[in-house]
Design brief:
The complex is a heterodimer of chains A (333) and B (326).
Chain A (H helix, E strand, L loop, with lengths): L1 H7 L19 H11 L5 H22 L16 H5 L2 E12 L2 E13 L6 H9 L7 E4 L1 H6 L2 E2 L5 H22 L3 E5 L10 H12 L5 E6 L18 E4 L8 H7 L5 E5 L11 H14 L5 E4 L9 H22 L1
Parallel strand pairs in A: 2-4, 3-5, 5-6, 6-7, 7-8, 8-9
Antiparallel strand pairs in A: 1-2
Chain B lengths: L1 E4 L16 H10 L5 H22 L16 H4 L3 E10 L6 E12 L6 H9 L8 E3 L1 H6 L2 E2 L7 H21 L4 E5 L10 H12 L6 E6 L8 H5 L5 E5 L6 H8 L4 E7 L9 H11 L7 E6 L8 H16 L4
Parallel strand pairs in B: 1-10, 3-5, 4-6, 6-7, 7-8, 8-9, 9-10
Antiparallel strand pairs in B: 2-3
The chains are: A alpha/beta (333), B alpha/beta (326).
């Protein structure tokens, strides 16, 4: 089914396409430049030059490693929600709020009607795609997660906030498609926060994707998915990209009880561990994935964005993925 | 009716200016081995002083230490008991905040007081009474992973956490705490077992001595268990009204034999609630409380807000509350 859709979009992917969830670590020079830019020591153009250089580095690296579906690496983003809040109308960027331990982030505040005014990620997508002949995913954060990770001072309730965001985020998806993106990933890591709101998340994603000619992936991670499975299969996307390895592939048991009916991007390496998995471990995980999802429907990637790792660790983890997939493909042929 | 204006627990430990970021910096320097534990303690002390000063400046009658020293509501307590180790991150209810999950590897034993020194310090730098806050036995038990097989049974976990916390409650009472707050948010979870939760609370109530016990519940609708909460041996029930649209009506009709902690101000959103709406709720609730005290407080701790917004929330709370103070 989804293979047909991919083909109809002109995408002929190998079995077990390899990809990444989105973010890659920022090289030191870019990390330092971001700090200097925040202090007003360098210009926006200086920073952007380094962001472009880092994006180019990651595109080359993914190509050299032999990844099938590429990502731009999100070198230009600080945070997956704040970035969109900064680039849409209706948000104010609030003060620091703790997320855990000694980690803080700036939680956006919705203070007026949210409005998409101009493309946010499109020029980055275009730049990344111009560097490679392999497909590059369009990447954005979904309305349910932007709603859940923002304060709301304007809309009457969560539903109104979420649906208003959905209508605006759809415009970004349309702009990505217009630019030529055929695979679009909409991240919804907040999906499992309130299981009773799953119908709202579904409705919002419907607003974002309905009738649009693209292969849609939705990424989610580190949640109580057992509470929203199998209901989550009703979401209008072609592929769920799920963290599996950090939770010991626990979800597979649920997929055995109730069949997984979408394509699955299967997280085969843990992004929160410095340890580089060995190829045998990843091969074994892929085989476990094949027990619940047919090869035609299985994609292989890390659990989540690799930005938490060093550049070397991220590359090493990707290399293991590619090698493991090569071995499994050979045995399937 | 004496309406006491108070905080529900946490207060932001960071702000937007450098002098409010000393704790973050010191912890980062500690990670690079450029600071000592004594440096962390000094930075914590400083941020506790500031948290208390801001609560007093906003006009609260009763303050907390802001839980500035707490890594999170679970591991700060569980991690200081023998028999636990601390594991990975898990989302704290439906917030954007994560806590570290304790793992029970052996019998739980409280080797020394956990919060007493922190309480004493807070009292020493506050011109207003201080309310110590601890997380309750049921919530700690529910969020613990189990490796030691005797704790596979939730009842055993609650019992042993309750035993450890009872010693803490007794010590806090002996240290002079007049009102001790116990947070038990896990009772709002779908599969909560009320009887186990109640047994844990009873164990704490037995040792409170002259102190009064306040049971606070956030992050969910307490309407279904409201009647049963009234039967518990606690002096104050703190309720989060943001999840319970019917709760004001219900209490206005059924009344409350307990003093109530009225969580009518949303501790999790920056928006300031309508003064008229909160005042109307108070007008209906206060006559229904068959106690000579009530508390007005945010629905949760304030750490979910940026610092400037947390302070504004407290000022807003005080502005509304003053209209009802005798």
């Amino acid at each position: 089914m989804s293979r047909e859709k991919l083909r109809s979009l002109g995408l002929d992917l190998p079995l077990l396409p390899t990809t990444s969830v989105g973010s890659f670590p920022k090289p030191d020079e870019l990390q330092q430049a971001r700090t200097r830019w925040a202090r007003g020591l360098i210009s926006r153009a200086d920073l952007e030059a380094l962001e472009r250089r880092a994006t180019e580095f990651w595109i080359r690296t993914q190509e050299e490693l032999g990844i099938d579906v590429l990502v731009d690496g999100e070198q230009y983003r600080g945070d997956m929600v704040t970035y969109f809040a900064e680039n849409m109308r209706g948000f104010e960027i609030g003060g620091l709020v703790r997320s855990y331990g000694n980690r803080y982030y700036r939680k956006p505040i919705i203070v007026s009607e949210v409005r998409w005014e101009r493309p946010i990620t499109v020029s980055w997508w275009r730049f990344a795609q111009s560097l490679t002949s392999r497909p590059v995913k369009g990447m954005l954060t979904g309305p349910y997660t932007v709603m859940d990770w923002s304060f709301n001072e304007y809309y009457p309730d969560r539903r109104a906030t979420c649906l208003a965001l959905a209508r605006e985020i759809r415009k970004e998806v349309e702009a990505l498609i217009e630019a030529g993106a055929r695979i679009i990933q909409i991240d919804e890591p907040a999906l499992s926060v309130r299981p009773q709101e799953l119908p709202l998340a579904r409705e919002a994603l419907q607003v974002v994707t309905e009738g649009l000619p693209a292969y849609f992936i939705s990424h989610a991670c580190y949640g109580a998915f057992e509470k929203i499975y199998p209901q989550m299969l009703a979401l209008p996307v072609d592929n769920f990209d799920l963290e599996m390895s950090n939770s010991n592939l626990d979800l597979l048991e649920h997929f055995k009880r109730s069949p997984f009916t979408k394509d699955l991007s299967f997280g085969v390496v843990d992004v929160h561990s410095h340890v580089i998995e060995d190829v045998e471990t990843v091969v074994a995980r892929i085989r476990q994935g094949l027990e619940v999802v047919p090869a035609e429907a299985l994609w292989i990637d890390p659990d989540c964005g690799l930005k938490t790792r060093t550049v070397e660790e991220a590359i090493a983890k990707l290399r293991v993925i590619v090698e493991a997939v090569r071995r499994v493909r050979a045995s399937l042929a | 009716m004496n309406l006491t204006l108070t905080n529900t627990g946490s207060y932001p430990r960071i702000g937007d200016v450098p002098e409010l970021q000393i704790l973050r910096q010191t912890l980062a320097r500690f990670d690079r081995q450029e600071a000592t534990e004594a440096d962390i303690r000094r930075a914590e002390d400083e941020m506790v002083r500031r948290a208390i000063a801001e609560q007093i400046e906003a006009g609260l009658d009763l303050v907390t230490d802001g839980q500035i020293r707490w890594y999170d509501p679970i591991s700060h307590i569980a991690g200081k008991l023998r028999g636990t180790k601390i594991n990975g991150l898990l989302r704290y209810f439906d917030t954007n905040f994560y806590f570290r999950q304790p793992v029970l590897v052996d019998r739980l034993i409280r080797e020394c007081p956990i919060l007493v020194e922190e309480y004493r310090y807070a009292c020493s730098v506050s011109s207003r009474p201080v309310k110590p806050v601890l997380t309750g036995p049921y919530t700690l038990a529910v969020f613990s992973l189990v490796e030691w097989k005797e704790y596979r049974d939730l009842e055993r976990r609650v019992e042993d956490y309750a035993m450890a916390l009872a010693e803490e409650v007794a010590d806090l009472a002996a240290a002079g705490a007049d009102l001790i707050q116990v947070d038990e948010p896990a009772i709002v979870l779908e599969d909560a077992v009320f009887d186990l939760f109640a047994a844990g609370i009873r164990a704490l109530a037995q040792v409170k001595g002259a102190a009064r016990l306040a049971l606070y519940i956030s992050f969910g609708d307490v309407s279904p268990i409201y009647e049963r909460l009234q039967e518990l041996p606690v002096d104050v029930l703190g309720l989060d009204f943001t999840y319970s649209p019917q709760l004001v009506d219900r209490i206005a009709v059924e009344g409350s034999v307990k003093a109530l902690g009225l969580g009518l101000i949303d501790g999790r959103n920056t928006k300031l609630e309508s003064e008229a709406e909160v005042a109307t709720a108070l007008e209906r609730l206060l006559p229904a409380i068959r106690s000579d005290v009530a508390y007005l407080n945010p629905s949760t701790g304030l750490e979910f807000l940026p610092r400037d917004r947390a302070f504004r929330k407290l000022q807003h709370l005080v502005r509304i509350g003053l209209r009802f103070k005798q």
